[in-house]
Design a protein that fits this description.
Largest sheet: 5 strands, parallel
Oligomer: single chain
Order of helices and strands: HEHHEHHEHHEEEHEHHEEH
Strand content: 15-25%
Number of strands: 9
Radius of gyration: 16 Å
Number of helices: 11
Strand order of the largest sheet: 2-1-3-4-7
Shape: globular
Helix content: 40-55%
Structural class: alpha/beta
């Protein structure tokens, strides 16, 4: 990504994931986190133009997403892939075995490593559907631990969305109805405000990562 920012050619970042990448709960795709991230980059860089390609699909988990790499990731030659993963594995208890999710993440990272793209894993959102009161459900915590361990072992970026959103709620007093959309009755998906906040934090983290020595 650092090298790409030094070139004149446009840059394609691929954001792959499930419904919280697609932007469920936002008013439109431009208000999803990839849409807001694209706008945040545009405010920071006149050149190169940075495109954030939204490749989120409702209901998917790591195995489904890894299977889409040939269509949705590799053709765009991205210097950076942001992989939002784990939410459906934790939430849809009857649909996913967490060990299978872990194995799919590892397979996907092996394939991405072969292309020498940078990778950021994004963990779960801090939302009532994934919590018991304000604490993570056991399955939520297990998924969080899997993602953190993989990021540590592979020495890749981890965007700690869960911890950031928890800080808003617990430390800053942001109510769930201010940062989570309940349009479908699940209290799972983010809203315009929190997607934008996530995008701004992610933008700052990426810029810091590629400009630090």
């Amino acid at each position: 990504m650092r090298a790409a920012l030094q070139e004149a050619a446009d840059v394609n970042i691929v954001a792959i994931g499930s419904s919280s990448t697609k932007g469920e709960g936002a008013k439109d795709e431009a208000s999803s986190y990839p849409g807001r991230l694209c706008a945040a980059f545009a405010a920071r860089f006149a050149r190169p133009i940075i495109h954030v390609l939204n490749r989120g699909v409702d209901g998917e988990e790591a195995g489904n997403e890894e299977a889409r790499f040939d269509k949705d990731v590799f053709p765009h030659n991205p210097p950076l892939v942001i992989w939002q993963v784990g939410t459906n594995g934790a939430w849809k208890e009857k649909d996913y075995v967490l060990a299978d999710v872990r194995d799919a993440i590892l397979r996907g990272l092996d394939r991405l490593a072969a292309t020498q793209t940078d990778v950021v894993l994004m963990n779960l959102q801090y939302a009532p559907a994934l919590l018991d009161e304000d604490r993570p459900k056991p399955r939520t915590q297990e998924m969080q631990d899997i993602i953190a361990q993989i990021a540590s072992d592979r020495r890749i970026g981890l965007f700690r969305r869960f911890e950031i959103m928890r800080y808003w709620h617990v430390n800053d007093g942001v109510r769930f109805d201010q940062m989570i959309s309940n349009f479908d009755g699940f209290w799972l998906h983010q809203n315009d405000w929190s997607y934008n906040c996530v995008a701004q934090a992610l933008c700052e983290g990426i810029i810091s990562g590629v400009t630090s020595e």
